[in-house]
């Protein structure tokens, strides 16, 4: 059995971005209300050997 875990958090926001020439790059970023999500996945390989 193989188990893998990974996670992400909303406070991992980019500080830089791209915008068309002459325009400012703007986006909403959560401040103080961060949420964390964890993912767990499992894979089982069942093989019958004869």
TrEMBL record:
Source organism, top-level taxon: Bacteria
Protein name per the record: Uncharacterized protein
Species per Swiss-Prot/TrEMBL record: Azospirillum brasilense
